[in-house]
From TrEMBL:
Leader sequence segment: none
Positions with biased composition (Basic and acidic residues): 1-30, 39-56
Protein family per UniProt: Belongs to the MNS1 family.
Record's keyword terms, sorted: Cell projection, Cilium, Coiled coil, Cytoplasm, Cytoskeleton, Flagellum, Meiosis, Nucleus
Pfam family, one: TPH
Name of the gene: LOC108630515
Protein name per UniProt: Meiosis-specific nuclear structural protein 1
Chief place of localization: cytoplasm
Chain positions covered by the region annotation Disordered: 1-56
Residues annotated as transmembrane: none
Cellular compartment(s): Cytoplasm, Cytoskeleton, Flagellum axoneme; Nucleus
Length: 424
């Protein structure tokens, strides 16, 4: 009986261990899945955050580059304008110092100079020269005309050169403005392209989500349609079967009634027998179940008593171990406290011995110092003692000084002894 109880207890224990192992395995699998999902979620979140930070960084860098480029272009444009403005002021100053002749006057003078002479009887007043040199010779007049013509040609060349420089300046300014506009346009295109790329990615994600949702809806619709078709088919089959049975019943109703009565009688008999068998089987099953239940209750009671006994033994062992541990800790604490007390006593004894030694040394040093000072005072008194004179009643000034010095020294030694006695 005891062996059977032990075997049943071992089987129950093995079964519980197996159940615990299965639970542990299931919990580990579940926790592993949760950790994997959490890791994937964290990685996805970190990737999204890194992508967002990278996009923000790129946008910030693009803005900084655009700002730096704008500043550089503005500085270059300002420098060029300043340089060209200085050149313009310089040229304007040169023009203001030179003689100013209009284009019409230059053209008129050039036409007159280029026209050949008709004869020598041409009057000087018909010439277009602004100067009046009637008394000069013809050679000097001709030379002066040539010089004037050359000056006018130089003036025209200078005017054309200034006009060309102004056109070149305008062309440079227009080119700089076109370059700045082109750079700004290119940067705007890049920003627009980046925005379009981001919008395209978002639109692709949205389209993919909508497409996946549409596919899921279509699949769900197909499943529902199949279920609806299946239900409709079953209903149609049942309606056809009922219709067929109704048509057959209308033709052979009488024959069916007789056959139905016989069949009902037979079925009733079979049902009665079946009920008897079921009642008998149920009684047998209940009896077996009661027997098994009583056996199981006995086993459970034995198991409970054994478990309670083991628990009591375990509790007793735990209490004993706790008491032993506490006693050991108390002994350790007592030994440590004793060790601390001994150490404290040793330190106090050492301090006391050290203090006594120090006091003895101080007293010895004070006595030696006192003896030395007394010897020095006696020696000084002997050295300062004058030679006795024959006139006894009179005391010299040096003897009076030695006496005063000895009394003051004596008072000083006396006060020092009183202080040392108080300190000791």
């Amino acid at each position: 009986m005891i062996k059977e109880d032990e075997e049943s207890t071992q089987r129950i224990k093995d079964r519980k261990e197996a159940e615990l192992e299965m639970r542990r395995t299931a919990m580990e699998t579940k926790s592993k899945k949760k950790r994997e999902l959490r890791r994937l979620h964290i990685e996805r979140k970190e990737a999204t955050e890194a992508a967002r930070v990278q996009r923000d960084k790129e946008v910030a860098e693009a803005k900084v580059r655009q700002h730096e480029r704008m500043q550089r272009l503005a500085a270059e444009l300002s420098c060029r304008k300043h340089f060209e403005l200085q050149e313009f002021y310089k040229k304007q100053k040169e023009r203001s110092t030179a003689s100013v002749v209009t284009m019409e006057a230059l053209g008129k003078v050039q036409t007159e100079l280029c026209t050949p002479r008709k004869g020598e009887d041409v009057l000087p007043s018909t010439l277009s020269c602004p100067w009046n040199y009637e008394e000069e010779s013809e050679a000097k007049k001709h030379e002066r005309k040539l010089n004037y013509k050359r000056d006018l040609q130089n003036q025209m060349i200078d005017n054309q050169r200034r006009f060309r420089e102004e056109e070149e300046e305008k062309h440079r300014e227009r080119k700089i403005m076109e370059e700045v506009g082109e750079v700004l346009h290119r940067e705007n295109l890049e920003a627009e392209k980046a925005k379009k790329g981001t919008a395209g990615l978002l639109q692709d994600e949205r389209d993919a989500f909508l497409k996946a949702r549409q596919i899921w809806k279509e699949k769900r619709r197909e499943v529902l349609k199949q279920e609806f078709d299946e239900i409709a088919r079953i209903i149609a089959e049942k309606e056809a079967q009922q219709k067929k049975e109704a048509e057959g019943k209308s033709d052979t109703q009488a024959v069916k009634d007789v056959v139905l009565e016989k069949l009902m009688a037979k079925l009733m008999e079979e049902e009665r027998k079946r009920l008897e068998r079921e009642e008998l089987c149920r009684e047998l099953y209940l009896a077996e179940k009661d027997d098994e239940l009583s056996k199981e209750m006995v086993k459970q009671a034995v198991q409970k008593r054994r478990i309670a006994r083991e628990l009591r033994q375990e509790m007793a062992r735990n209490q004993k171990a706790i008491a032993e541990k506490k006693a050991k800790e108390d002994a350790i604490d007592a030994a440590f406290a004793k060790y601390l007390a001994d150490e404290q006593k040793k330190r106090e004894e050492a301090e006391r011995i050290k203090e006594q030694t120090r006091r003895r040394n101080v007293v010895q040093y004070r006595n030696e110092l006192r003896e030395m000072m007394a010897e020095k005072a006696i020696q000084r008194a002997k050295e300062a003692e004058p030679i006795p004179m024959q006139t006894g009643p009179f005391i010299t000034d040096e003897k009076r000084k030695v006496k005063c010095y000895s009394e003051s020294t004596f008072q000083t030694f006396k006060s020092q002894d009183i202080k040392n006695d108080l300190y000791n």
